[in-house]
Task: structure prediction
Amino acid sequence: MAMNEQAYTIDRYVLDTLMADLVGHDRRPSAFMVYLAIVAAHSGGRASLSHAEMAERTGLSRRAVQGAVEVLDRRRLIEVSRQSATEAATYVPLTPWRRQRA
Result:
């Protein structure tokens, strides 16, 4: 691995279950892509990204990102907070499957 490359760790659940659920069942592959983008940007417990930044990272339109964020928030897969209406939102990827196993 090159010096500037970073490895990400993803729970098996994300690929084995969540992907099939969001892409196949909900027919929202954009939500899965945005979840992965938030996990990748997640640093120190939080990821501050605008919809435009997430669109650039995922190759989706801003509107697709907005819809994906709504799906993820409604399904309680992310926590969204804002300091003000003009600031980029801060996203925390949630892992409700971990709580269910405990």
Summary: Residues 56 and 62 are 9 Å apart (CA to CA). The chain is about 55% helix and 10% strand. Residues 12-25 form the longest helix (14 residues).
